[in-house]
Amino acid sequence: MAAPLTYKYIVAEDEPLIRHNVLKKVASLHLPLEAVGSSGDGQTALELVKTAYPHFVITDIRMPVMDGLRLAHYLYDFYPAVKCVILSGYDDFKYAQEALKYGVSDFLLKPLKTDELRTALQKIVLNLDAEHQNCSAMDTHGLSAEELNRLLTDYLRTNFRTDISLSRLSEQFGFSQEYLTKVFKKYNGETPLKFISRLRVSEAQQLLVREPEMEVKQVGEHVGYAEPAYFSRVFKSCTGEYPSEYRLHHVKS
């Protein structure tokens, strides 16, 4: 029987006592979670994301240097596989609305209640356990360009590990490849295929360090590249290093 998965997380909170309390509460839940770092500001938390490769982040919404919303926004853009839970002492729905724009998993109010934290983290564990979720069929006719882009972006974020092509997207959404590319590039500044490559490489970077026993070929297959040589070329074009070089330079001995 395979060993149960353990998921890594970091806590970002500028009040040391609260930060310690959050770590203590998470540990008391006895979920398959491992704290791999904590910080007092969003910028330091971001550096931890780049080096500790967590599966999710628990962050306060108000912090110096970089606040929790900016951190959530950065994760949403560049580390979409890293989930985020926002903590706040401000009982104001506008913060929740802003956080939800960035794909935040949950928005919890302080003082933090153990039951609410347990529910939020159990949901994250379940989501992490359930890979390659398929989007249900969507009726996209009659949508505005902005609405179409939102659906297309959400679809790509969910399915970037699968075999996606412009022709398949055209069939899925009912629009021409040219129109989908034009709409996506207008709102995102890049083509759908470049967006997919960026997500895949970001996920591969995490796996290469987080799973040192996983073969480079398996990493490529996991993020959507069936051909190892092609995976290596794409990875180097994005990072300047081949996957094996990246692992060598970032895995601690």
Automatic annotation (TrEMBL):
<dbReference type="GO" id="GO:0000160">
    <property type="term" value="P:phosphorelay signal transduction system"/>
</dbReference>
<protein>
    <recommendedName>
        <fullName>Stage 0 sporulation protein A homolog</fullName>
    </recommendedName>
</protein>
<dbReference type="Pfam" id="PF00072">
    <property type="entry name" value="Response_reg"/>
</dbReference>
<dbReference type="InterPro" id="IPR011006">
    <property type="entry name" value="CheY-like_superfamily"/>
</dbReference>
<dbReference type="Pfam" id="PF12833">
    <property type="entry name" value="HTH_18"/>
</dbReference>
<dbReference type="GO" id="GO:0003700">
    <property type="term" value="F:DNA-binding transcription factor activity"/>
</dbReference>
<feature type="modified residue" description="4-aspartylphosphate">
    <location>
        <position position="60"/>
    </location>
</feature>
<dbReference type="InterPro" id="IPR009057">
    <property type="entry name" value="Homeodomain-like_sf"/>
</dbReference>
<dbReference type="GO" id="GO:0043565">
    <property type="term" value="F:sequence-specific DNA binding"/>
</dbReference>
<feature type="domain" description="HTH araC/xylS-type">
    <location>
        <begin position="150"/>
        <end position="249"/>
    </location>
</feature>
<dbReference type="InterPro" id="IPR020449">
    <property type="entry name" value="Tscrpt_reg_AraC-type_HTH"/>
</dbReference>
<dbReference type="InterPro" id="IPR001789">
    <property type="entry name" value="Sig_transdc_resp-reg_receiver"/>
</dbReference>
<comment type="function">
    <text>May play the central regulatory role in sporulation. It may be an element of the effector pathway responsible for the activation of sporulation genes in response to nutritional stress. Spo0A may act in concert with spo0H (a sigma factor) to control the expression of some genes that are critical to the sporulation process.</text>
</comment>
<dbReference type="InterPro" id="IPR018060">
    <property type="entry name" value="HTH_AraC"/>
</dbReference>
<keyword id="KW-0805">Transcription regulation</keyword>
<keyword id="KW-0804">Transcription</keyword>
<keyword id="KW-0238">DNA-binding</keyword>
<feature type="domain" description="Response regulatory">
    <location>
        <begin position="8"/>
        <end position="125"/>
    </location>
</feature>
<keyword id="KW-0597">Phosphoprotein</keyword>
